[in-house]
Amino acid sequence: MAEVLLKHISKAYAGGPTVIRDISIDVKDREFVVLVGPSGCGKSTLLRMIAGLEDITNGDLLLDGQRINDRAPKDRDIAMVFQNYALYPHMTVYENMAFGLKLRNMPKDEIRQRVTRAAQILEIESLLDRKPKDMSGGQRQRVAIGRAIVRNPKVFLFDEPLSNLDAKLRGQTRIELQKLHRDLQATMIYVTHDQVEAMTLGDRIVVLRNGDVMQHDTPLALYNQPANRFVAGFIGSPPMNFLPGRIVADGTALRFESAGGAVSIRLNGSVHQQALAAYAGRAVELGIRAEHLTDQPMNRQRSYFSPEQLIVFDAVERMGSETLAYFILEGQRFVARLSGDSTVDTSVGVSTFWDIDKAHFFDADTEQTIR
Ligand SMILES: Nc1ncnc2c1ncn2[C@@H]1O[C@H](COP(=O)(O)OP(=O)(O)OP(=O)(O)O)[C@@H](O)[C@H]1O
């Protein structure tokens, strides 16, 4: 059992501004929770407070119901894996993994057992006599994870553990971390600025911005029901397309009019009609994902909006399985996700089809999703 509860946690570094503002997060037993957000949003600070490496200015940190704000890091039953591995260069892999256990005066046999088991789990048995300098980045990262596993902690904390690996190895290690989580059945809290890593690893994801929680939800809920414009733009690759405009009511007709006038979408009969009726006369922003914007109406049973103005794709990325086609509309960069074998002619204007029921609308002032 290892449940972590952050209750109204705040942090201000000495003499500095508040960098974490009244954050409450529950991490359930055996859950994999990812803290994600742009640089400086406070995710490392939050993780370091859980580890005990930073003081908590206000609020309570509970591990299995016990307040541990003032407990020393070594007594927290929490192990942290750092981005830069933090291995001792003069020690072998075995010694690196055994070191913390030796300090705790654990019997030699048990240390051997634990190190051997961790090495098996991570498939690094053949590296146990090597020094860190004679290993690849990926291998060093495994040793760093092994050093956490041997402690058999209640909670694992990871601070951007994959950021020093190349793209291919990052992909592989992501899959291994998922498997590790399943095998160890441990509670894990993982920090990254990479939304793809967050989406693929997290049971739930906490999106942070400037020390505030923007949304705490499952990956698919973040993707399909973002709470606000920030989450909508941060989660998803390629990022969501946005178009500022306003809601116009004309008799019984309700429309979204883009700020530049190129797009006028009838909202009657759409899933948004009811919520947007209250926004008549107000500024909103439309958001639509690349896969809901195409050059062919995909499903004739759905009602697609097609702007009168033809667009001209100005760049095309062929990925094989799909094609990303880019265009500019009212000064905004748009991307459409087309099928892998589409022929895209960048020299002529084409019609686009927008699946408005799948679009999102955001309050222009509060940036909250309008529901
Ligand atoms: N020791 C410190 N003293 C003062 N301010 C700090 C200290 N450490 C971090 N900060 C500030 O706290 C804020 C949050 O920093 P933090 O490192 O937690 O962000 P982050 O989201 O992990 O960013 P990154 O992805 O760049 O590591 C930043 O504004 C940072 O400048």
From TrEMBL:
Keyword Signal applies: no
First and last residue of the signal peptide: none
Pfam families: ABC_tran, OB_MalK
Keyword line: ATP-binding, Nucleotide-binding, Sugar transport, Transport
GO molecular-function term, one example from the UniProt record: ATP binding
Keyword Transcription: no
Residue ranges annotated for the ABC transporter domain, each copy included: 4-235
Official protein name in the record: Multiple sugar transport system ATP-binding protein
Record organism: Spirosoma utsteinense
